[in-house]
Amino acid sequence: MIYEVFRQERKGQPFQHAGSVVAPDERFAEIYAREQYGRRQESVALWLVPREAVHEIDEFPDEFDLKYRRVDGYSIKARLHEAREKALSSEPRAPNQP
Amino acid sequence: MDTRAQEFLEYVQSGGQVETADWMPDEYRARLIKFIEMHGNSELMGVLPERDWILRAPTLQRKLALTAKIQDEVGHAQLIYRVVEDLGKPRSACLDDLVSGKAKFHNVFHYPTKTWGDVGVIAWLVDAAAIVSQKALLKCSYAPYARIMKKICWEESFHILHGRDVILAMVTGTREQFELVQEALGRWWEPLMHFHGNPIPADEDPMYVWRIKSQGNDEARQQFLDGYVPQIRELGLEIPDPALRKDEETGRWLYTEPDWDKLRAVVSGHGPASAERLAFRRLSREDVAWVERVVLAEAA
Questions:
Q1: Is the ipTM of this complex over 0.85?
Q2: What is the DSSP letter of A51?
Q3: What is the CATH T-level fold of the domain A2-53, as seen in this structure?
Q4: Inter-chain residue contact B298 with A24, CB threshold 8 Å
């Protein structure tokens, strides 16, 4: 049985995937994981998860082009430049077109 | 190469990384297995030269440090074989191929450890050469391998320091102690120059092409020389290569070309200690077979 091992380096930090161990049961998995990922006090906690229990999602389609919800959806460089120029210029701003 | 494989190649060449469950070309998988398996074999065989010195270490402190280093190296073998297993080759098959002589392990582990000086040189300089290669693997295109390399590099740094401390104790000691180190350096220089492999251009090295390694062989050797020649020389030790010097214009080290045929012979099992080491590994594999049986029976 394959167990994925996640380790936490310090209290309050996220658990990160470290590797995996093969063990016949959970008891042995714990012994192997302690030995390989904790014997030098490099972890304050470990999570052991049977590989089959991991439900992976790795597709995030963006059919509707929703990038207005993200920082990279806005490119303000040219517009900001224009606004600054206009603020400094004495020329009156053009009225709305009827 | 078909389109899909071509796209994969471009992906890894532009810095892309691959996970276990991702599609990969057969050639990439086969090369990964061979490379990573050899790394695992080297970790496992690498403890044998040092094991010989556990009982002979000069102080209790050295004995404990050496034992801890050996424990680390066996741990590295376990982590690395796990990566190979996920790629499709079971650990037992790796061990079978190792003891039958079919699979290779690193050249430096085919040599005997004659004195405590050798133990110091191995821990300091062989581990230093290894860490140059392993740091370059932190960027490996196969992500699970790159991830475990983080832990391995972290532990290797303690090994180098332990080795350097052993060497410093001896070069600041008696004339005989200094001589032990000088002789050991003489024995290990050729294997160290062999360590990073023949100077095949990176673009012709399939391991680089697939971005399994992130640098060519000679780049690794140059990096090793850059870092360690000054550290060796400042201790008053002499490196047994009269041609070794840094070309100030190009910034590259010049050295006597190592005998590459000799390297090929050594890694294919014709080194001075190859047969003895493999015989020992075979014996210990038979010796501990019962443990596996008991563990599996217990869990069943």
A1: no
A2: G
A3: Ubiquitin-like (UB roll) (3.10.20)
A4: yes
